[in-house]
Automatic annotation (TrEMBL):
Its cofactor is FAD. Residues 8-333 form the FAD/NAD(P)-binding domain. NAD(+) binds at residues 184-191, 207, 277. GO terms for biological process: 2-oxoglutarate metabolic process. This is Dihydrolipoyl dehydrogenase. The active site is at residue 450. The lineage of its organism: Eukaryota, Viridiplantae, Streptophyta, Embryophyta, Bryophyta.
Length: 471
């Protein structure tokens, strides 16, 4: 079509990186096209990631709360049961509402949406196999690769999305499995494990490494693992799954080995979730023919302004190095387009927060205590337990703590780690503070509303350079 023949910006991929870049580009006055093959916008995050998982985490949390916690608050509800199809429907409603919302935003901002699979056939041309059949060439001065990531498979294990599932299948199980084995102790495995555990599955997490969520501050991680164990999640660390096969009872048998070699063992399951990481997705994009360099992990190499090795071709989000998170992809998208427009665009990867949406939630930003130690930095730690926070006590949700690590000499905040109620919201005070180069005293001297969970952040900050009041 002639209308698309001369675009300023062509974005391949409509996930949080791509759709945000497209909207921002249009807002900056660029003629913009976004190409997406899924048939729906929002990428992994909205369709099979962040959003549906948070919907199921909320529903399963409500069920768990009703069963275990309502009574002590004086609320009696009789017997509580699950309606799984209704739960899935509520999740689907959230997903559809949000993905359609992005289509609306595209219209509002005049982004052209092409539904199909894009291949970059020259530095200013993308050839699209249209979902409706046929193909279309979209020419553009600048091309942004925002093709995201896909589930990483494991040798000896075939994902059928019925019994052996990826996170996508785990978001759509038709019944609650009696036994669920999660391969991989990262945040995705723990979140999905929490969902099905709360709904009644016996959950075992098998992890190759010697710790779950290795990027987490070790002290916080240990409390976190204890908390999950209290919720009856089991862990087999330093263990490798070599094979998964169907057994005579119609279930699955996992063949395990100690990570460092040793006697093999087996584990039974009804459903196995493979959550051993995600890998950049560039299949059929034509990168090799074009000469776009990728690193040994398959990630597209970019410089600090998101330029690939081919002039006019940029890349953002999960497909490039950096934390594989939706909000990081969005920041990449905005900065990349601003740089194309000749403005100053920048993303500070040191202040990208990470959140695990289990209960309690765990959120962090900046360095862990281990990283600070390894860097030979003199530091102080301030901690405040939610047990001593009046709001956490009044809502009877007081597990966890706030931990702030600050430079010993300057008091500059180096890292903040929170496990507890609404940790994923609380962390942003720390993110903002760090972005502004604040000291822990800066946080401590800010008046915080009472009674709020945020006061725990303030008191941990007090504890960093002095003493907290309430502990
Ligand atoms: P993607 O979202 O993967 O989007 C890329 C899009 O490009 C896809 O829709 C794909 O169909 C399309 N595409 C690929 N190739 C082509 C092509 N050649 N032509 C046309 N289209 C193409 N992150 C968080 O920050 N918070 C969370 O809570 C969170 N939860 C998650 C839970 C799960 C279960 C999973 C799997 C992920 C989760 N993530 C979360 C990670 C998050 O989803 C990703 O970091 C984010 O989606 C990356 O955005 P992106 O735009 O780079 O790529």
């Amino acid at each position: 079509a002639a209308a698309e023949a001369d675009q300023d910006v062509v974005v391949v991929g409509g996930g949080p990186g791509g759709y945000v870049a497209a909207i921002k580009a249009a807002q900056l006055g660029f003629k913009t096209t976004c190409i997406e093959s899924r048939g729906s916008l929002g990428g992994t995050c909205l369709n099979v990631g962040c959003i549906p998982s948070k919907a199921l985490l909320q529903s399963s949390h409500m069920y768990h709360d009703a069963q275990h916690n309502f009574k002590s608050h004086g609320v009696n509800v009789g017997s509580v049961s699950i309606d799984l199809p209704a739960m899935m429907q509520q999740k689907d409603k959230a997903v559809t509402g949000l993905t359609k919302g992005i289509e609306g935003l595209f219209k509002k901002n005049k982004v052209t949406y092409v539904k199909g699979y894009g291949k970059i056939t020259s530095p200013n041309e993308v050839t699209v196999e249209l979902l409706d059949g046929g193909s279309q060439t979209v020419k553009g001065k600048n091309i942004i690769i925002a093709t995201g990531s896909a589930v990483k498979g494991l040798p000896g294990i075939t994902i059928d999305e019925q019994k052996v599932v990826s996170s996508t299948g785990a978001l759509a199980l038709k019944e609650v499995p009696e036994k669920l084995v999660v391969i991989g102790g990262g945040y995705i495995g723990l979140e999905m494990g929490s969902v099905w555990g709360r709904l009644g599955s016996q959950v075992t997490v098998v992890e190759f490494g010697d710790a779950i969520v290795p990027s987490m501050d070790a002290e916080v991680r240990k409390s976190f693992q204890r908390s999950l164990e209290k919720q009856k999640m089991k862990f087999k660390l330093k263990t490798k799954v070599v094979k998964v096969e169907e057994n005579a009872n119609g279930g699955l048998t996992l063949h395990l080995e100690a990570a460092e070699g040793g006697s093999p063992s087996t584990l039974e399951a009804n459903v196995v979730l493979v959550a051993a990481g995600r890998t950049p997705f560039t299949k059929g994009l034509g990168l090799e023919e074009l000469g776009v360099k990728v690193d040994k992990f398959g990630r597209v190499e970019v410089d600090h302004s998101f330029k690939t090795s081919v002039p006019g071709v940029f890349a953002i989000g999960d497909v490039i190095p950096g934390p594989m998170l939706a909000h990081k992809a969005e920041e990449d998208g905005v900065a990349c387009v601003e740089l194309i427009a000749g403005k100053a665009g920048h993303v500070n990867y040191d202040t990208v927060p990470g959140v695990v949406y289990t209960h309690p939630e765990v959120a962090s930003v900046g360095k862990t205590e281990e990283q600070v130690k390894a860097a030979n930095i003199q530091y102080r730690v301030g901690k405040f337990p939610f047990m001593a926070n009046s709001r956490a006590r009044s809502i009877d949700d007081a597990e966890g703590m706030v931990k702030i690590i600050a430079d010993k000499e300057t008091d500059k905040i180096l890292g903040v780690h929170i496990m507890g109620p609404s940790a994923g919201e609380l962390i942003h005070e720390a993110v903002l503070a760090m972005e502004y180069g604040a000291s822990s005293e800066d946080i401590a001297r800010v008046c915080h509303g009472h009674p709020t969970l945020s006061e725990a952040v303030k008191e941990a900050a007090m504890a960093t350079y002095d003493k907290p009041i309430h502990f």
